[in-house]
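Box S2. Input/output pair 1.
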Amino acid sequence: MRKADVVSSIAEKTGIPKVDILVALEAFFKEVKISLIEGEPVYVRGFGSFILKKRAAKVGRNIKKNIAVEIPEHFIPAFKPAKEFVQAVKDTPHELVEQSEKDLINQD
């Protein structure tokens, strides 16, 4: 499901114009980005948390030049689903998941 599909689905279920939903969704994404850039996690009860994960410094390799490259310590954004969300996905019948995978393959 793409962002446009999410917007369409919400518009159909709520009767709110697609443009308004898109604006709200974009504002949500922007606020999540800003909060994470400032180092503040975002918690959405029943859905999950947008958090920062620390990656330790390490030595990588530039394959083309065959030299070692020092990769400094850094943070990456991550999503941690809520227990209710994980349980809902676990309780989903496998036929639905397999059908959605087939739909994705048929879209291409």
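Box S3. Input/output pair 2.
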Amino acid sequence: MRLTTRTNLAMRTLMYCAVNTGRNIRTSEVARATNASENHLGQVINMLGQKGFIETVRGRGGGIRLARKPEDITVGGVFRVFEAGVPFAECFVEDDCTCPLVSVCRLKGALGEALMAFYRSLDKITLDSLVKDNAGLKALFTDDRALV
């Protein structure tokens, strides 16, 4: 299993916002601190805003900030938003499945159960648990160079 770049950037962005609470954060700042393309990050930020994870503030002094408390954001919730459109295997897309085994294969059921277990385990992890008392992350994300 491999996460999409968008999911990875979403988590980096949310962690950056959680470490830098109390102020509006610019996309360019997040991009520099997370080694991401501003263009790609902009698409991720748009989706995070649409799904209510962050708020966007327009204009001078604008930026982004968390829309919910870090303890109310789960990794599973974020992953579902960004990974939901990416089928785990061909057989998970009924209209486009060309696998000749689909009518007799038991692997799809096993994979479905494993995927549900994966998300359930991520539902137990909050954004807060990723950033709280994480001095290394705080040092990376509050470095003055990121603010230039």
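Caption for Box S3: Residues 5-147 form a domain with the Arc Repressor Mutant, subunit A fold (CATH 1.10.10.10). The mean pLDDT is 89.
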